[in-house]
Write a structure and sequence with these properties.
By secondary structure, the protein is α/β, with parallel strands linked by helices. Helices cover about 50% and strands about 15% of the residues. Helix 7 runs antiparallel to helix 8.
Length: about 250
């Protein structure tokens, strides 16, 4: 199998910064450290309420980052305009609600297929690879393919939640769904990514899925960095991913 790419989400560096309204810690510095530790890309989610990543962070990342930038965003006109201005390597369309603490599930492509098809077309024309953050559901994957997405990112949150709840029967069933849907998406010609909630304990079964070519991981790495430092936290995740792939 090919080497698995690691995208490091730096949102929560900005969360800590914003808690005090200070100029530090700097998300760009985190991106540089992530690159030194073996990251293959940087993910940043500019939310409507700017709760962590801010417009200036995207400006800096887009101009100074040497790794590919994956811009997570809701399917709004405001976010589309920002993406079209910066033309990041990738754009990942995610659902977003103001009251949620984190992204709670995959996008409902079936419900909004016509809107999303029109929404992503200019992004593709601008040269960004368009990814849809989606649950492991065949109908949703077919819809993502139909509207012109090049990539899907499978939501691994339920799998991780079952693991930490000790519900291993449901965890293994969710892992089987992820495995089957990765295979199905790959058969349609979609590039397959995965992410959300992955930790040292849960990453290897996902990393071992042969159709998955990229994992995007953030919250756990930022939490672990409080104890061991950012570079060691990322290096250990990189090691676990590579071992699973081997």
């Amino acid at each position: 199998m090919s080497k698995l790419r690691l995208g490091v989400n730096i949102d929560h560096i900005a969360t800590v910064r914003n808690a005090r309204g200070s100029a530090y810690p700097d998300p760009m510095r985190a991106a540089i450290l992530a690159q030194q530790a073996g990251a293959d890309g940087i993910t940043a989610h500019l939310r409507e309420d700017r709760r962590h990543i801010r417009d200036g962070d995207i400006d800096t990342l887009a101009t100074e980052l040497t790794l590919p930038l994956n811009f997570e965003m809701a399917a709004t006109n405001e976010m589309q305009a920002i993406a079209l201005r910066h033309k990041p390597h990738a754009v990942c369309i995610v659902p977003e609600k103001r009251e949620e603490r984190t992204t709670e599930g995959g996008l409902d492509v079936l419900r909004d297929d016509k809107y999303l098809a029109k929404f992503i077309a200019p992004l593709r024309d601008a040269g960004s690879r368009v990814s849809i953050f989606i649950g492991p559901d065949a109908d949703q994957i077919r819809a993502a393919h139909r509207i012109g997405a090049q990539v899907i990112e499978l939501h691994t949150g339920a799998y991780c939640d079952y693991h930490y709840a000790g519900n291993f029967t449901e965890r293994d069933a969710e892992l089987a769904r992820l495995r089957d849907m990765a295979t199905f998406a790959h058969s349609l010609g979609l590039e397959v990514h995965a992410g959300h909630g992955l930790t040292y304990e849960t990453v290897q079964p996902i990393a071992a899925l042969p159709e998955v070519v990229e994992l995007n991981i953030g919250h756990f790495l930022m939490a672990e960095a409080m104890f061991v430092g950012l570079e060691p936290a990322i290096r250990e995740m990189r090691r676990l991913m590579d071992d699973a792939r081997a």
